[in-house]
């Protein structure tokens, strides 16, 4: 063991150990070299001191190799854990970022949806408020107009002497915007009241509402106040006509709730010119007219004091036709009792001559005598079938305009079925 007392040996061992530890990666080479040194200094060239040093180096390098392996594994494990942890953290971070982005996007979408919903809600509330405001304004305007209508048409205006009608409300009809919003033709007649009197008739008139056929027989209708009389100072003799609220030429409706007891003057001089005005406008323009006729009865009277007539052309907003008039139910020279329809005149009543038939006496046949036509024309030129009677169509074919009155020369040859002194009305 004297070798270990040699300072050089210790110094060499220490240096070899330090170098081996510092150069752990070369521990394997040192180990191999030490093993060769052991063989060489034992067998080839025996040297106890160097052999011992080689043994010591072999032992130390072996331990260094072992320690380096453990450290390498540990480092590998740590690296693996760190790598795994890094990957896990990175993966976790990506998921968190994705989740955060998705959450942010979802929140933005929710906010946008909320803003849109609030905006739509506000818009709906605005539209609703606007609609309510408009409806309220229209309702108030309608109520105001109805009130005004009652005030105007709830009484009869004063009539100047000799006037067949007077303008009312500046000649402006009292229709609402809704009344003149549609051009679809229709006609409607009010129910009779408790006294069996007619009420207002309304319509939108057009060519499609006009009748193609002649007026039927209305002689079996007796409106309230129908107390017929015949006077010499009335054109055609008969005081009253069965007057249409809405003229037959406009709708063709002849029902009882469209017929009113009206004087000859009221019917021909008051109503007929405006009915012709409406009919001519509709046929000429093919436009439509909002039309209303409202009878006015004072109290419980059976005979109407008059009627209110209103017309408004829809397509041209009243430019072509617009009127609001009152037609009094009067007859010049005749005093009327509006409570009952009775009448009185200073002129003599026209009485029909009573024909007394005498017993037939057989006589020798003579040549037939052709009766001369009343002054004004030759009936044979109108009577197409030669039966001694003239129909409305025959009169029209001959160029005569309807209606014809009792003072016309053709009247005696025509059939006045309702005895109102007028045919073809």
From TrEMBL:
Name recorded for this polypeptide: DNA/RNA non-specific endonuclease
Bilayer-crossing residues are 12-41, 53-72
Q: Name one GO molecular function term.
A: endonuclease activity
Question: Type VII secretion system protein EssD-like domain: which residues?
Answer: 183-310
Native organism:
Carnobacterium antarcticum
Protein keywords: Endonuclease, Hydrolase, Membrane, Nuclease, Transmembrane, Transmembrane helix
Highest taxon of the lineage: Bacteria
Q: Where is composition skewed (Low complexity) in this entry?
A: 82-91
Renumbered to this chain, the Basic and acidic residues biased-composition regions fall at 101-146
Pfam families of this UniProt entry? Endonuclea_NS_2
Task: Spell out the residue ranges making up region: Disordered.
Answer: 78-146
Does the keyword section mention Protease?
Answer: no
């Amino acid at each position: 063991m004297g070798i270990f007392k040699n300072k050089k040996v210790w110094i060499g061992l220490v240096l070899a150990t330090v170098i081996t530890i510092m150069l752990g990666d070369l521990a394997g080479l040192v180990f191999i070299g030490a093993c060769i040194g052991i063989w060489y200094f034992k067998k080839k060239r025996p040297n106890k001191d160097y052999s011992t040093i080689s043994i010591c180096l072999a032992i130390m390098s072996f331990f260094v190799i072992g320690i380096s392996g453990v450290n390498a594994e540990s480092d590998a494990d740590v690296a693996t854990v760190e790598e795994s942890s890094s990957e896990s953290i990175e993966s976790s971070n990506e998921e968190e970022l994705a989740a955060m982005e998705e959450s942010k996007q979802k929140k933005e979408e929710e906010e946008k949806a909320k803003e849109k919903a609030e905006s739509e809600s506000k818009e709906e509330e605005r539209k609703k408020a606007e609609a309510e405001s408009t409806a309220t304004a229209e309702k108030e305007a309608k109520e105001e107009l109805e009130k005004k209508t009652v005030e105007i048409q709830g009484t009869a205006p004063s009539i100047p002497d000799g006037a067949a009608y007077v303008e009312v409300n500046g000649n402006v009809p009292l229709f609402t915007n809704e009344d003149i919003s549609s051009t679809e033709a229709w006609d409607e007649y009010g129910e009779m009241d408790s006294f069996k009197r007619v009420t207002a008739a309304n319509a939108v008139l057009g060519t499609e509402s006009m009748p193609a056929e002649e007026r039927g027989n209305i002689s079996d209708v007796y409106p309230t106040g129908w107390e017929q009389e015949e006077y010499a100072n009335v054109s055609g003799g008969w005081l009253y006509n069965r007057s249409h609220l809405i003229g037959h030429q406009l709708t063709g409706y002849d029902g009882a709730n469209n017929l009113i007891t009206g004087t000859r003057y009221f019917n021909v001089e008051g109503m007929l010119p405006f009915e012709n005005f409406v009919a001519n406008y509709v046929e000429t323009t093919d436009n439509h007219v909002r039309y209303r006729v409202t009878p006015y009865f004072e109290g419980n009277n059976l005979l109407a004091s008059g009627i209110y007539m209103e017309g408004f052309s829809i397509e041209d907003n009243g430019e072509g036709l617009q009127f609001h008039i009152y037609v009094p139910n009067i007859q010049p020279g005749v005093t009327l009792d509006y409570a009952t329809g009775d009448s009185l005149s200073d002129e003599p009543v026209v009485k029909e001559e009573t024909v007394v038939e005498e017993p037939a006496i057989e006589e020798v046949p003579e040549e037939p005598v052709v009766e001369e036509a009343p002054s004004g024309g030759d009936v044979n030129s109108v009577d197409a079938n030669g039966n001694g009677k003239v129909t409305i169509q025959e009169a029209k074919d001959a160029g005569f305009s309807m209606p014809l009155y009792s003072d016309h020369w053709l009247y005696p040859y025509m059939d006045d079925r309702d005895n109102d002194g007028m045919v073809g009305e």
